[in-house]
Amino acid sequence: MADCIFCKIANKEIPATVVYEDEQVLAFKDLEPQAPVHVLVIPKKHVASIAELKAEDKELAAHILVDVIPQIAREQKIDQSGFRVVANTGDEGGQTVKHLHFHLLGGRSMQWPPG
Ligand code: 5GP
Ligand code: ZN
Predict the structure, then answer these.
(1) 91: domain CATH number?
(2) Could you read off the pLDDT of 34-78 as tens digits, one per residue?
(3) Is 57 a domain residue?
(4) Pick from 22, 56, 40, 18: which is nearest to 99 by CA?
(5) What is the mean pLDDT of residues 78-104?
(6) Residues with Cβ within 5 Å of ion ligand 2?
(7) Which strands sit side by side in the sheet containing 83-86, from one edge to the other?
(8) In terms of residue numbers, what domain contains 35?
(9) Is 113 among the domain residues?
(10) What is the mean pLDDT of residues 21-25?
(11) Is residue 76 in contact with ligand 1, taking CB distance under 6 Å?
(12) How far does Cα 85 stand from its chain's mean position?
């Protein structure tokens, strides 16, 4: 999608520190990390948010949650200590980039509730 920063990262038009890539998914370090490990996991195809996922995206969403995020957590060595997965959705959800992304955060203790 034109003017989508994460589409541009997925298309390698904007550089990012990539930690995982396959045909459908890219994961890269957040520009402003909020924890020692802060990775963004995105589908390469443009989906605006969880609210915009369609039935046809089920396999992709499951791939991200079942395969990709746990694998990155293992590689980043936060699978044993614990981690947080966040998908800010829409304006009140605090979503600033309107391309679906899962924050994978770890390496420190997290607080609850979020702000
Ligand atoms: P949101 O607020 O939409 O949930 O999260 C957007 C995240 O994207 C923020 O944590 C922000 O730091 C990150 N971000 C925004 N622009 C870029 C960029 O160009 N490169 C990278 N690596 N991260 C970005
Ligand atoms: Zn996009």
Answers:
(1) 3.30.428.10
(2) 999 999 999 999 999 999 999 999 999 999 999 999 999 999 999
(3) yes
(4) 40
(5) 98
(6) 1, 4, 6-7, 46, 99
(7) 18-21, 25-29, 37-43, 102-106, 83-86
(8) 5-106
(9) no
(10) 98
(11) no
(12) 8
